[in-house]
Q: What sequence folds into this?
């Protein structure tokens, strides 16, 4: 009888770790896995964007990150303690950008990096609560990474105590998102999760918390380290993502190949650090050579194009509408992909319904300044040449305007005068497997854009 009772107690304890007890309208964790709002498992394949110290580049960087095929972008924000304060309108704009580009947004407060003070963690939680007006309702597209690399000391018990105190405050404020918690020791002490992760998980009234390891030289220097550190988390029924990693780091090499391959084998997410802007001392961590991603670095080619890389393993979250990028109906028969201009990202332009004959809910107008643009994101299953048509009107006269595909400017294209919406057939364009961005940018301007159509 005593053995039977002990067995029942053990099974009950295990169920508290493995099962999400909150029926979320967004992401949720269950049995050590992350699921989206449609109940489909979601495995992050993403890229970090260091917005906290490179503010103002998000309009270029985030669409370019999406063009790699990534399904996630982790965006570093500032709560004002260390880095400049990102206000609520900035956070709202970043979320909108991510949604428009079919990217799940993992948002983190970066001011806490390496700090042990409980006040720093409290400040981060206060920041999230202050942002709740733009976060609530985004549970299906936003994951809150509470505090980047909080608790720099390699001390799991103090790390756990801080999070056990602060996570209930987020829930009490009405933030029902999946929460992500970085390991102690600047994210590189996975033993903190191995020893205390279950306690932190159970401190969440909604059991909707996942964990993150930052795998550089101390947590990801060898293949055995990588495997042991991942297994020590997921074997407890806890959900995990590798929130940062690179090709090497300050004090040694990183086994990025094993991080990527073992993550793929175990269904663990990964997010490479970082898109651009690491400076001369850490330039080897830049994934691309400029904010627009015009070319990849050594690290970028490994992360994006390598075996088990983003292009090979990324799947866009099912919460994004199929009309914004699904290349087929699952039957093997090609279906044209249509992206409505008004659903894209608009810069300097706006929506209108004044002109009749549009498709969707309207069209985009107001191309009256240099560099005004509309950009949409389209998904195709296979890389190759596809026919591109842009439905437009040019009521005043013939106009020339730029068409840009995946950051490559195809030059000025001729939009003949027509007061009605007509198709401009641009012939074949090369698209990558996964996400692609297509932009119309003002040169002469003074056109209206209705939709973009990709056909095989």
A:
């Amino acid at each position: 009888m005593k053995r039977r009772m002990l067995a029942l107690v053990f099974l009950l304890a295990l169920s508290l770790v493995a099962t999400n007890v909150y029926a979320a309208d967004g992401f949720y964790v269950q049995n050590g896995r992350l699921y989206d709002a449609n109940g489909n498992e979601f495995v992050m394949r993403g890229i970090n964007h260091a917005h906290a110290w490179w503010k103002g580049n998000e309009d270029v960087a985030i669409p370019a990150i999406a063009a790699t095929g990534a399904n996630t972008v982790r965006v570093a924000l500032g709560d004002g303690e260390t880095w400049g304060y990102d206000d609520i309108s900035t956070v709202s704009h970043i979320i909108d950008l991510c949604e428009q580009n079919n990217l799940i947004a993992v948002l983190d407060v970066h001011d806490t990096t390496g700090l042990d003070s409980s006040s720093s963690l409290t400040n981060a939680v206060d920041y999230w609560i202050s942002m709740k007006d733009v976060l609530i309702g985004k549970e299906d597209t936003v994951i809150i990474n509470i505090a980047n690399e909080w608790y720099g000391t390699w001390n799991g018990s103090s790390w756990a105590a801080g999070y056990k105190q602060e996570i209930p405050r987020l829930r009490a404020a009405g933030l029902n998102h999946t929460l992500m918690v970085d390991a102690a020791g600047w994210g590189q002490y996975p033993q903190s999760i191995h020893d205390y992760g279950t306690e932190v998980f159970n401190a969440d009234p909604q059991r909707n918390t996942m964990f993150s390891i930052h795998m550089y030289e101390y947590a990801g220097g060898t293949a055995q380290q990588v495997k042991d550190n991942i297994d020590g988390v997921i074997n407890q029924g806890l959900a995990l993502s590798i929130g940062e990693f690179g090709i090497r780091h300050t004090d040694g090499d990183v086994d990025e190949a094993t991080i990527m391959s073992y993550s793929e084998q175990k269904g663990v997410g990964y997010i490479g650090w970082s898109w651009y802007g690491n400076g001369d001392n850490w330039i080897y961590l830049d994934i691309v050579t400029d904010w627009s991603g015009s070319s990849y670095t050594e690290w970028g080619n490994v992360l994006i194009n390598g075996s088990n890389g983003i292009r090979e393993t990324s799947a866009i979250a099912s919460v994004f509408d199929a009309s914004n990028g699904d290349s087929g109906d699952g039957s093997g028969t090609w279906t044209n992909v249509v992206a409505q201009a008004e659903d894209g990202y608009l810069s300097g332009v706006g929506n209108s319904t004044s002109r009749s004959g549009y498709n969707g809910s309207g069209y985009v107008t107001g191309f009256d300044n240099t560099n005004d643009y509309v950009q949409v994101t389209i998904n195709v299953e296979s890389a190759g040449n596809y026919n591109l048509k842009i439905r437009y009107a040019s009521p005043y006269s013939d106009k020339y305007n730029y068409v840009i595909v995946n950051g490559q400017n195809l030059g000025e294209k001729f939009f003949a005068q027509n007061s009605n919406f007509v198709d401009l057939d641009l012939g074949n364009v090369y698209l990558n497997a996964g996400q692609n961005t297509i932009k119309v940018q003002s040169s002469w301007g003074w056109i209206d854009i209705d939709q973009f159509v990709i056909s095989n």
In short: Residues 1-24, 322-334 have pLDDT under 50 and may be disordered. The chain has two domains: 28-320, 337-455.
